[in-house]
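Q: I have 145 residues here and want to know how they pack in 3D. Can you give me a structure?
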Amino acid sequence: MAHKKEWYVIGNLSEFIEHARRLVFKFFGEVNKNSEDYLSTIIASLNDDEEKELDKTLSFTECETIAKQFLKQKINKKTKAISYYINDTILMDMLESFNNRMVSNILNKLVNDGLLESAFDEKHNDFIFWVKEENNENKKEENNL
């Protein structure tokens, strides 16, 4: 028997997106934290520095744009009100997309700050990154000492 996907209505789209991006931000790099207590604490527990970092690495506007690509919407014919719906599969895909965007933004910042080098690999149809090495002149001077 096929399992029917359940759809959930999103009561407040802005709150939903804010919680989702905080979840992605806080779980980035975390391993095996499965406690429900941990999950509820991380969503509400960003300090000022983390709030600033979240806004720099994964803005609300970016997440809103991404979320609206995934969510199903229905428009009430009489009131013209828009309702957004989600299921488990869409939620996981959306969170993964948020995570990919955050990684992309972090890599972009590191490249712009001159800490990483990048190039496009046509064979793999993707970008590659590596840590920028210091100037070769500095290496030659060190070797001569």
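Q: Anything worth noting?
A: Residues 8-110 form one domain. The chain has one domain: 8-110.
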